[in-house]
Amino acid sequence: MAESFDAKEHQHVRFNPLKGEWVLVSPHRLKRPWSGQVEKAAEVSIPRHDPKNPLCPRATRANGKVNPDYSSTFLFENDFPALLQEGAPQPGPSGHPLFRAESAVGTCQVMCFHPWSDITLPLMEPSDIRAVIDKWADIITDLGAKYRWVQIFENKGAVMGCSNPHPHCQVWASNFMPNEPQIKDTHQRQYYAEHKVPLLVEYARMEAEKKERIVVENEHWLAVVPYWATWPYETMVLPRSRHILRLTDLTPEERDALADIMKRLLTKYDNLFETSFPYSMGWHGAPTGESLTEDNFHWQLHAMYYPPLLRSATVKKFMVGYEMLALPQRDLTAEQAAEKLRNLPDVHYKQRSDQS
pLDDT for 109-149, tens place per residue? Predict the structure, then answer.
């Protein structure tokens, strides 16, 4: 008798409908012996305020500007921007379709989450996280009035290239649609044309029913390990049922609920290996600028968290070799990763009463 398929045991590929890509899942590899590093990362002592840290209140930045004595969030123009609002000349005709260039105009900003350097989002009060969410929405309103795409993203941890431990994110706004949202725009539009329902609205409904990949949830939001996840503990945060195009469309109740979901999810991340969990995260929603007057009903707001850690606080996943040249591969299934995260405590390991 032929053996029946078991997703927890047998190799298979999974389709990512948001990007039209596949990921190879190889759960049988979890049985292989592991003799690599598994030690806990050493805790780094970070001063609450460092006058030499350019992100701290009252500190002087590289351009000579002095930060205000801020007590909540703080937004400023990036001193070393990748995109400039003006000044770059237009590229001329390439003369050949293999050598195309187009104008790139935009702005880059830095947003501090909190005046303290020794705190991260999961350790903040819900009201402080709500202030971050409100500021994100303000940024979409302000920059979205001019630019077609406003990318809010956070790189957390040195392993993700973050050179400053002060809690902060970045904002890059551009007059063009970057590759990743353009791909998602195409596939969400195609799905809606065929099925008459936004892709991620349908996906959230089905995840809420199945409950296999949910990490945390509340009345308004789901945080799931996507069925097609690439990174070991990758998650997506998306509205539970309401169709929402952009951060600016969130109600006060949905913003409070999002703060709750973020705190709980990021606490579980930190508790997994009892370390300040590194990741890159960002928001994707309907495009802005000239697209504000266009039909973007196929879009659904969502956030992505891409953490690199695999087996411990010091062992990370590398996207190299086959994954760079062919397609992504993972051993741990999305369901197994979600179960591990879901079963972790809701109280941060640094705040437990039994913590020595």
Answer: 999 999 999 999 999 999 999 999 999 999 999 999 999 99
Query: In angstroms, rounded to a whole number, what is the distance separating the alpha carbons of residues 348 and 220?
Result: 23
168 is catalytic: yes
Burial 5-24 (b: 16+ CB within 10 A, else e): eeeeeeeeebebbbeeeebb
- Say which residues have a Cβ less than 8 Å from residue 266's Cβ, sequence separation at least 6: 120, 121, 122, 277
Catalytic residue among 10, 96, 166, 168: 168
Q: Distance of CA 306 to CAs 96, 122, 223, 277, Å?
A: 37, 16, 13, 11
C-alpha to C-alpha distance for 264 and 105, rounded to whole angstroms: 37
Q: How far apart are the first and last CA of the chain?
A: 55
Cα separation, 152 vs 186, whole angstroms: 21
**Amino acid making up residue 317:** K
pTM score, two decimals? 0.94
